[in-house]
Amino acid sequence: MFSPPAARAPVAPRLLDQVRERVRYLHYSLRTEEAYIHWIRAFVRYHGRRHPREMGGPQVEAFLSWLSGDRGVSVSTHRQALSALLFLYQQVLGQQLPWMDAIGRPQRKPRLPVVLSPAEVAAVLALLDGTHGVLARLLYGTGMRIAEALQLRVKDVEFERRVVIVRSGKGGKDRVVMLPATLAPGLLQQMQRARVLWEADARAGRGGVQMPDALERKYPRAGASWAWFWVFPQVEHTVCPRTGVERRHHLFDQTFQRAFKRAVLAAGIDRPATPHTLRHSFATHLLQSGTDIRTVQELLGHSDVSTTMIYTHVLKVAAGGTRSPLDALPGDARLVHEPAACGHAVH
Prior knowledge:
Layout: H1 15-25, H2 30-46, H3 57-69, H4 75-92, H5 99-102, H6 118-126, H7 130-142, H8 146-150, E1 157-158, E2 163-166, E3 175-178, H9 184-204, H10 215-218, E4 233-239, E5 246-250, H11 253-266, H12 275-288, H13 293-300, H14 305-308, H15 310-317
Antiparallel strand pairs: 1-2, 2-3, 4-5
Helix pairs in contact: 1-2, 2-4, 3-4, 7-12, 12-15
């Protein structure tokens, strides 16, 4: 007599899929998800592909010691790897073990930011045109982080009030920054270039841009509207790594970073300036011009004014803020006299 096949037991999701599911449930960013997946995969491979449930504190410390000792990673990278493993054990595997509190976290040492002078900023900006030129001027003119600028939507630029609304910045906070008057014409041109792409997507029946959180389900048509379109859209369509949907993403940060690096080199600047240097320069130049530190703190979106105070340390010694005792010596003593070029040895 025929009997139906036995029902198969449900297959447990793979470990990394569980990590992704938990990361997205907690609304972590895509970059955090990618970083956590990277470090958890590296941890498992380092220990011969053993399952993390079979390991614990000694294995975590051995992996972190290898990273800091043999690989020579920075403090921030070390802390990121540790955060990934603690997330794995606490949030995914549901383990609250004593060794988690015993593992030491290396402390970040305060570093002074790289700051360009106004003349150096002007030299770099002069070498960037088109979309990259507008983006660079927006970063310097508002102090926005590069991710905040790239995720800017049309609806968040208010030309009449001359403000830009930064949505879900670092820490998930919104804030308002100024829209520089000199940037308004270039930003308007950039939005006209973006509208050409939006209209092309509308004619092709594209599904629209990605919406934050659950807004795509709540307002299904909003993603295809002009108001929600990117100010800095990518020219080509790409596949979203989370949803698998092909749509128009905002400009990739790597594209702009490469263009900015070329401009810095062409301007003859020999310091390691990056797009984030424009944010540092924005804060420093505001303080230099007399803007109070609380206002700068709000514009930067810092939770604690102590974070903003790092820029005051730059100002204390820059541009003659503190006079060196060498400059107080008599004129002849502070000058270096070159030996006469007569071929005789200097004794």
